[in-house]
Amino acid sequence: MTEPLPFATPQDWNDWLAANHSTAKEIWVLYHRKGSGTPSIDWQQAVVEALVWGWIDGVRRTVSPTEWTQRFTPRKAGSSWSQINRAHAERLIAEGRMQPAGLAQVQIARENGRWDAAYSGAAPTELPQDFLDALAMASETARITFQTINARSRFAIYYRLTTAKRPETRTKRIAGFIETLARGEQPY
User: What local confidence, expressed as pLDDT, does residue 85 receive?
Assistant: First the structure.
């Protein structure tokens, strides 16, 4: 993991992307929670600016009670689009803010069908049974932590398991989620 970088304003983040979007492979953005007293962009601001430059958010990690980080990378041609990000992209295009790198990712998604197949992001009502079976066999800490997860984490589990293309990938992801829960951490 590279050293996380803080951005006080969306413009600061946009400036970094303008200078680095075509050469950097990743960046970890450091966020400061609202009550921390440190100026910081929020997650939605970061995602919108990333879309402008053809980048997307990924893994999130808690650093402290007042800080967390999130990995951003250039979007890959086969990556899925959410309906929310699709709407942001359409708005950015209409406002004339979308940069060529962001427009290229929209065009790729339109051509490969990912644009029309954008997922809603709505929370699933039930998680896959193989995950629930593994959870039932997991440590007490994992089961207790699972009872406290938020809707975003629940959707992350659902989405990562239902989009696995190979059974061994799904099995590995289940094990990873169980390990995360066993450490008392939120999956997302």
Answer: 92
